[in-house]
Design brief:
The protein is an alpha/beta fold and 244 residues long. It has helices spanning 14-28, 47-52, 58-76, 94-107, 124-140, 181-189, 197-216; strands at residues 4-9, 32-37, 79-82, 111-114, 155-159, 173-176, 224-229. Strand 1 (4-9), helix 1 (14-28) and strand 2 form a beta-alpha-beta unit. The longest helix has 20 residues, at 197-216. The chain binds zinc ion.
Length: 244
């Protein structure tokens, strides 16, 4: 059975900074990744595009953001979809929760990654967390037999927010992305609307790699991304990797 990862970002470029390497790694290992954006971030996260040409229409900005995310997703090896819910503010209706629950049920991911519960700098990011929380529960029927189609509850992580300490983010899981870091850099370069984040997230990958080396003793880890699990992780054994 192919392992599946669903990444849900509030805006169409959020995934690339925070989980681009992890996506590329899953794809390289033969997994299937659906990279889902709830909106294009056309108002709040497209500053450079508006600066470049203030007369652009919203539709034109959305189209450019779509092209950038498709290009970056092709580099990382995942499928990109955008629900185009609008941003700043994003409005989440019950219909939209049901729409996301259907997508989760149909795709049946083993793992979901999304934003953190808190983010004092971005109103859409915690909203994405909330809608994923609810849709995940609805798609999985809370883990018991129910009178509707349901999937097994996917493992669920939050990726690292831009200001981790102020968002209450304490990572408990690090992914070694050294082997795919060049792909992450190439994917980040596609996001012309947020050029300023590329060097920041390259530096962060290196810093998280340092932490991962210290924690694990694995000297080969040069770059890492980190996550926080939102539900307990269930393992087959307390010693999961004997070949460390
Ligand atoms: Zn965002």
């Amino acid at each position: 059975m192919t392992k599946k990862l669903l990444v849900v970002g509030a805006h169409s470029a959020d995934y690339v900074w925070r989980a681009g390497g992890t996506i590329a790694k899953v794809a390289e290992q033969g997994g299937q990744v659906l990279n889902l954006a709830l909106s294009y971030g056309e108002r709040g996260e497209s500053g450079e595009l508006w600066k470049e040409n203030p007369n652009r229409s919203v539709d034109e900005v959305k189209k450019l953001r779509h092209e950038m995310s498709e290009e970056a997703s092709a580099i990382l090896g995942c499928e990109f979809k955008c629900l185009d819910w609008g941003d700043y503010p994003m409005i989440v209706t019950e219909e939209r929760v049901a729409q996301l629950a259907d997508i989760i049920r149909d795709f049946a991911p083993n793992v979901i990654i999304t934003h953190t519960k808190e983010d004092p700098f971005n109103p859409d990011h915690p909203l994405a967390y909330q809608v994923v929380e609810k849709a995940r529960q609805l798609s999985a029927g809370a883990g018991v037999a129910a009178a509707f189609a349901r999937i097994n509850p996917p493992v669920w992580y939050s990726f690292e927010p831009h200001q981790p300490e102020l968002s209450g983010f304490v990572p408990d899981t690090f992914i070694d992305i050294t082997s795919v870091f060049e792909k992450k850099i190439a994917a980040m370069a596609c996001m012309r609307a947020q050029e300023y984040l590329k060097s920041y997230y390259t530096e962060l990958g290196s810093r998280r790699g340092n932490h991962a080396r210290r924690i694990s003793g694995k000297q080969q880890v040069k770059y890492a991304e980190c996550f926080k699990s939102n539900v307990p992780v269930i393992l087959d054994t307390i010693v999961p990797d004997m070949h460390f």
